[in-house]
Amino acid sequence: MDELLRRHLPESVVMALVTAVLTIPILGVRIHIENLQVTLEGDGTPVYIAMAVVFLVRLFRAPLSQITGMVRIDRLLPSSDWLTRYRTGLLAAMIVLALIWPFVASRGAVDIATLALIYVMLGLGLNIVVGFAGLLDLGYVAFYAVGAYSYALLNQHFGLSFWECLPISIVLAGATGCLLGFPVLRLRGDYLAIVTLGFGEIIRLLLNNLDELTGGPDGIGNIPKPTLFGLEFARRASTEGGVTFHDFFGLRYDGADTIIFLYLIALLLALFTLFVSNRLLRMPVGRAWEALREDEIACRSLGLNPTLIKLSAFSLGASFGGMAGAFFAARQGFINPESFTFIESAIVLAIVVLGGMGSQLGVILAAVALTALPEVARQFDEYRMLIFGLIMVLMMIWRPQGLLPATRPRMELPQ
Amino acid sequence: MSALLEVADLGMRFGGLQAVDGVGFTVERAQVFAIIGPNGAGKTTVFNCISGFYRPTSGWAMLEAQPIHNLSSHRIARLGLVRTFQNVRLFKNMTVVENLLVAQHTRLVTNLWSGLIKLPRYRRSERQALEKASFWLDKVGLLPYANREAGNLAYGQQRRLEIARCMITQPSLLLLDEPAAGLNPQETRELNTLITELRAQHGVSVLLIEHDMSLVMGISEQILVMENGRPIALGTPAQIRSDPKVIKAYLGEE
Question: What is the domain count for chain A?
């Protein structure tokens, strides 16, 4: 005990003082509002608590770490072997659950699930770029924005419907990916990440400042929802002679129909994304991405054009971003540049990294978790980012390869 | 008919260092040509210049009468000049057969749509690729290991796989950078047989860098000796063996 005190006491005192310095500006003052007068009041209690905690933890670090060493949380997580073995079953179960979800869950829950599916699309799209091709893209939100604005603008100026705009949005986002990718894909690793980060911001600033075209910070409103073969989901048809869904089927109007319909479209698009990215992995281009990630020089020596192969991953990923964007615009009915800030790119990247780079199932799980958890834990709203950060740190300690580490389907030679 | 590969006055300067200076030689069709020389003589730099990984600072190289010294490496590879590396460069986390499939990439149906919906054309192309891969695996004796991870193969097997990966692209000229390095005598003899076979059955020319003199003297028709970036002798194995300049370079002067 003496030895413990002698060794750790000075250090603990210093750490407690450092804590005080760091926490006073954050925890030590409280905003006090009275009759429109905003004043800051000093309040020492939280600071004392923080200091005491830090002091005690520092002091008893050795016995504490012995205790935590006995509890192996990483063992409690389902092992990756287990998840890999039941991959197909798990996927089937998820799809079945997703299909019955809108008919059993509440209206709010279906709406959140739709949002989760948008992130599934984004996650799977970015997974092609980051997971399959190994290109770190920090500006993925740019393509999401291009997709959303493509639909919004084409609808506003030319009156095209969602279903007409969806393929156009996909193509436009893919083309933007090509355009941005071409000059930057000869860069590697960190340099590429920085440049893509810049491009993401450029697109957002363009949207913000091209007032005449994009409406600037005011955004674009009144974006129509998708229709079912021309049938509108609304109380009354928006155009003369238009037919609504409930009229056509002789049902009573129910606002929940729209939400369920949007959910089903999102599910369809997410499944499409899953199917395509799953096929890509088994196609020659998927093999080329993997090979390029392993050894670019060897690839070049075999006649593979690295720029072209990277570009294909970049623009395919961008296309799915565009698709998600178009759907997002249709769901929200209103978009402005605020929806396409860097934090969106960061969240999508977090989904890919948490899920396990290159692992589709992992990305889906992570997307659902990261969108559903904040909604479930509404009462901890203030601590959302804190929890988010904590999860990230813990994941990187226990499972750096992600929730469900990727296992690539291998081409086998029948023997 | 012109020679397969013609190199003239090739020079490569890195800042103040002239790594290669005035190298010229000609490789004929279905010929085995060796470049030898002490370590640091600039042999690998010549390889890098010819295969497009470096852009030579002077001179030119022509493959089948087409200038290649300005082309990027993947273009040169598509023209039929492929190489191996001194330190084996396999895709280690991919299986052996996948290594051979990647090598066929430029010849496969890579069209997105036909792959997504598995058009017959796409299936056929994938099947043929697998057949071709198994042919070459059989040729280099790696068929039983087809589904193993390439990184788990023994060193000699990795070397053979690298050669097979080059050959599957149907090259007209194969550049081997120290193919016998790290091989035991038995494996070196097998390599000798393999190179002879490749030339006889597939009409490929082989340009190799090698330190193993028994291998070089046994299979090469022409040998270029380099020292300090400059060519010092060019001729048949018999001529090289008796060349006083070569003896001096290898054994030193009395």
Answer: 2
Q: Could you report how far apart the first and last alpha carbons of chain B are, in Å?
A: 46
A262 and A200 in one domain? yes
Tens of pLDDT, residues B126-168: 899 999 999 999 999 999 998 999 999 999 999 999 999 999 9
The DSSP string of B185-205 is HHHHHHHHHHHHHHHHHH--E
Say if CB B217 and CB B243 are below 8 A apart. Answer: no
CATH superfamily of B1-80+171-254: P-loop containing nucleotide triphosphate hydrolases (3.40.50.300)
- Rg of chain B, C-alpha, whole Å: 19
Strands (E), chain B: 5-14, 17-27, 32-36, 58-63, 66-67, 81-83, 173-177, 205-209, 222-227, 230-235
Tally A–B CB contacts below 8 A. 110
Pair (A56, A87) in one structural domain:
no
B92–A290 C-beta distance less than 8 A: no
By a Cβ cutoff of 8 Å, what residues of chain B touch chain A?
A: 51-53, 72-75, 77-78, 82-83, 85, 89-95, 97-98, 101-103, 105-106, 108-110, 112, 115-116, 126, 130, 133-134, 137, 144, 146-147, 165-166, 169
Complex confidence, ipTM = 0.91
